[in-house]
TrEMBL record:
It comes from the Eukaryota. InterPro entries: RNaseH_sf, Tc1-like_DDE_dom. Residues 84-216 form the Tc1-like transposase DDE domain. This is Tc1-like transposase DDE domain-containing protein. Pfam families: DDE_3. PANTHER family: HTH PSQ-TYPE DOMAIN-CONTAINING PROTEIN (PTHR47326:SF1), TRANSPOSABLE ELEMENT TC3 TRANSPOSASE-LIKE PROTEIN (PTHR47326). Signal peptide: none annotated. One of its GO terms (molecular function) is nucleic acid binding.
């Protein structure tokens, strides 16, 4: 519609949307739904660009020493059939063609960590998240995962810049434990392979369609444990290419 409006104004003549659909088809182009990416202002782009340049010399072997962590929200997919429906003119008001939704779908907030060595612990958050509760998660889940995955070998812990992560008591706890933390640029989930892990699990949830929170938790844990080691190696090995893309785009969002 935007192309049609622009062309009609530019050529000063009436044009139909179908005209552009045929032109797109002749050019062997396809219409895709645009990817959702976080907005980045100029300061954030600059910091991402500088961070990528500073870490560009890290080898894949170096990135394999990182313990990646993050949290994500999972929802019970009540009635979400997708945005597109194929129907006849007579069926357009059939209730089976409606995309139904609820105001507050049941959901889980999940924290997990991973490395090239395997999947770490998965924790289901109950209630709000603050620095004190985050430290408990680090003690009960991150430290055992680090011991199990790295077997005493040195590693670097990665988490983003969420407020509980950067609170003074959290940073003090990490220093006391002598845990080396990877400095991370704001608004940069595309630089971390753990974002791809969440995407894989959520795709599985859309296929399995759990109906309750209990089923959602069980399915999430099962799919978390099913992530294969070769997939983790592939994702971690892609980090240098992600940095190159960020530098090429001057800090803007990437396709990862």
């Amino acid at each position: 519609m935007e192309i049609t409006s622009w062309a009609q104004e530019y050529f000063q003549k009436t044009l139909l949307e179908n005209t552009f659909h045929r032109a797109i088809h002749r050019c062997r182009l396809k219409l895709y739904r645009s990817k959702k990416k976080q907005y980045l202002n100029m300061i954030q782009k600059r910091r991402r660009f500088l961070w990528a340049k500073a870490h560009l010399k890290w080898t894949v072997a170096k990135w394999k020493t990182v313990l990646w962590s993050d949290k994500s929200k999972f929802e019970v997919l009540f009635g979400k059939l997708g945005c597109h429906v194929i129907w006849t003119k007579e069926d357009k008001d059939n209730p089976s063609c409606y995309q139904r939704s609820v105001q507050k779908p049941a959901s889980l907030m999940v924290w997990g960590c991973m490395s090239v060595c395997g999947m770490g612990s998965l924790h289901i958050w109950k209630g709000s998240i603050n620095a004190e509760r985050y430290i408990q998660v680090l003690e009960q889940h991150m430290l055992p995962s680090r011991r199990r995955l790295f077997q005493g070998r040195p590693c670097i812990f990665q988490h983003d810049n969420a407020r509980p992560h950067t609170a003074s008591i959290t940073t003090s706890w990490l220093r006391r434990r002598r845990i080396r933390v990877l400095k991370w640029p704001a608004c940069s989930p595309d630089l971390s392979p753990r974002e791809n892990i969440w995407r894989i699990i959520k795709r599985k949830m859309r296929q399995r369609r759990p109906k309750t929170v209990e089923q959602l938790e069980a399915c999430t844990r099962q799919e978390w444990d099913n992530i294969p080691i070769p997939k983790l190696e592939q994702l971690v090995s892609s980090v240098p290419r992600r940095l190159q893309t960020v530098i090429k785009r001057r800090g803007d969002a990437t396709q990862w």
